[in-house]
Amino acid sequence: MKNIPADRWLFDRVSIGATAPTGDARVIELRSIVKTYRGFQALHDITVDFPPGVTGLLGPNGAGKSTLIKILLGLLRASSGDGTVLGKPIWHQSKQIRQLVGYMPEDDCYLPSLSGVECVQFAARLSCLPATEALRRAHEILDFCGAGQERYRTVETYSTGMRQKLKFAQALVHDPALLVLDEPTSGLDPDERDAMLNRIRILANSHGKSIVICTHILPDVQQVSDFVVILAAGRVAVAKSLAELARPALPALEIRTLGPPETLQAALRTHAVESQVNPLGVLVVQGDSPTCVQTIWRAAAEHDVLIRSLVPARNSMEAIFLEAVQSASQPN
Amino acid sequence: MPIHSISYRPWDGHRVSRWTRWLTICSTGIVRSSKSQWLRRLLFAAFIPLLFTGIPFFLFEQSVRDPNMWQAFSGFVRTIPQNHVLHHAVGNVPHHPTPEQFEAIRHQVWSFLTLTFLRYPQAFLMVIIVGIVAPPLISQDLRTRAYLIYFARPISRMEYIAGKVGVVSFFLFLISALPALCLYVAAVMLSPSVEVVLTTWDLPIRILIGSAWMIVPTTLVALAFSSLTLESRYAGFAWFAIWIIGHVTYSTLVAIPAYEASRRHEEFLPGWRLLTSPYQVLGTVQSYIFGFTHELDVVIPAFLLLITVSLASLAILFRRVSAPMRV
């Protein structure tokens, strides 16, 4: 296997396969979706359910994410299979679906010569908001998105970050039940990125929106997602809750210390507890029993080691993603 | 919730009819196009020929009261190109016509003047205005990927195309049908009695039909060009090229036969050669609508050509508008 991170030993092999989550409520249900473009099969038998909340849709380039989004929005017709979005059958009720869904495309898209607020108002009017109400709502949403007076400038003059905000505002202006956000934090500086993720969380937690985030920035998914779907080579490689994915198969503890971790490692060895230091300088101890925790504190006290943090180990998104993609690319 | 809250607020207001979506696309397109200074200047210029065409209307109607005006009107008629129809009608009237004689030729005079107005200054302006407005309408959406803004909403291809057609049609209506209708209203006001409406009531209808036959095919062709490229200048170039090439082809084809006919002192009929020029095709159709052309062997092919071109352009539009979604 190539490109395995140096700390790979920490992570147990994640289980791969399209497993429908349990529970009744489903925002998106897809059954055996196949899409073929002139002989090239872009999607292979996609069967997956998206629960309410924030779902991260991940996949390498060419995995079929954009095709899947277009099928969900009814812009493309699946070669076979069926499904529903918010209870409405895809393709047959695509207009009703697009009325209920807000889509933020990854591509830079804008209407030249219009100001930011006019663009958002236009998007609202396309969703049948009355003209005056659309303008009021456009200002309200731009306030929420943190757009200031630049909303009155023409969109050609906007920076990448401002265009991201504009696209987000356009997706949100008609108050959709489901948001599909394609690379929402792409091109944003760290502050703006945090603000964008915060908005996503507010929408999901406080306003009950379901959100699908399609991104390559894995920490974003880890930060806001409840559920993760990984597409690889047109197939669903992973469809699980983030909590389930992040939990290692064998429990472990991660310890950060003030000073070199090797001191505590040696101290633990005297208590017959094996540990390893990963490349990030974090000491990892297998097991998470109360006895184990007590032993760690005792060893630290005995050797005057200051512990900065002691937390259960979690699988990283990068490892989960790489594992899923590599498993999908291997022949059966 | 406090009024100063800038957090997210849900919205559950009343939505307007879904049939207004194409109007939204249309009105926004009109606003965007109107930001062009050149377009605004041209729209202003489009009403200048109205004043020029208003003079013969004024002279004709004043002739009823003042016979001297008749001489002025007859002189003015000679300055109008392709005036044989009007010249014939006016030539049969004595130097001091009676009100009944005026009544007999009024419809023909008004129709011819209106057709002349639509056929010459407004047709020329139409080519320029469509060349400014139409090329960026779709090509710019493709280049800036604005189609994603449209089609992420419950917009169908038909609504999108209708909205774009509406933009061009609006400006063409503004420079053709609207001034022509204004001309008609002015003519009624200049006439001795409002009763002239009873004999000329069909003119506004002919103006609308004639304008529609000009607006629809030209708009669809220009938008089809726009949809075929990401660069609006190429679409603009193609648009002007078909008019120039068509006109040159037609002129070349008719030059020698027309010269030979004139040497034999015979009337020359261009026949099928009209079909090589979009300008002549539109002129033939409008002339038929205003009742001045009756040669069906030319009129029917002209109508069929316009219908075919419109349908082909519509097919291209449908194909191209959905193309970005298929990849």
Short description:
The complex is a heterodimer of chains A (332) and B (327). Chain A is of the alpha/beta class.
Question: How would you describe the overall organization of this protein?
Answer:
The complex is a heterodimer of chains A (332) and B (327). By secondary structure, chain A is α/β, with parallel strands linked by helices. Helices cover 36% and strands 25% of the residues of chain A. Chain A has a 6-stranded mixed sheet with strand order 6-7-8-3-9-10. In chain A, strands 2-1-4-5 form a 4-stranded antiparallel sheet, with helices on one face. In chain A, strand 7 (178-182), helix 6 (190-207) and strand 8 (210-214) form a beta-alpha-beta unit. The radius of gyration of chain A is 23 Å and the shape is globular. Chain A starts with 27 loop residues before the first strand and ends with a helix. The model of chain A is unreliable at 1-23 (pLDDT under 50). Chain B has 327 residues and is mainly alpha-helical. In chain B, helix 1 crosses helix 8 and helix 3 runs parallel beside helix 9 (177-190). Chain A binds chain B through residues 37, 70, 73, 75-76, 94-96, 98-99, 101-103, 105, 107-114, 118-119, 122-123, 125-130, 133, 137, 140-141, 143-144, 170-172, 174-175, 199, 202-203, 206-207, and chain B through 6-18, 20-21, 24-25, 28, 32, 35, 140-141, 144-156, 325-327.
What is the helix content of chain A?
Answer: 25-40%
Radius of gyration of chain A, in Å, reads 23 Å
Number of strands of chain A: 14
Please give the order of strands in the largest beta sheet of chain A. 6-7-8-3-9-10
Topology diagram in text:
The complex is a heterodimer of chains A (about 325) and B (about 325).
Chain A: E1 28-37, E2 40-50, E3 54-58, H1 65-72, E4 80-85, E5 88-89, H2 94-100, E6 101-104, H3 116-126, H4 131-144, H5 160-172, E7 178-182, H6 190-207, E8 210-214, H7 218-224, E9 227-232, E10 235-241, H8 242-246, E11 252-258, H9 261-270, E12 275-277, E13 283-286, H10 290-302, E14 306-312, H11 317-329
Parallel strand pairs in A: 3-8, 3-9, 6-7, 7-8
Antiparallel strand pairs in A: 1-2, 1-4, 4-5, 9-10, 11-13, 11-14, 12-13
Helix pairs in contact in A: 3-4, 3-5, 4-5, 9-10
Chain B: H1 21-34, H2 37-45, H3 48-63, H4 67-78, H5 84-91, H6 99-143, H7 147-151, H8 157-175, H9 177-190, H10 196-200, H11 202-227, H12 232-263, H13 278-289, H14 296-326
Helix pairs in contact in B: 1-8, 2-6, 3-4, 3-6, 3-9, 5-6, 6-8, 6-9, 6-11, 6-12, 8-9, 8-11, 9-11, 11-12, 11-13, 11-14, 13-14
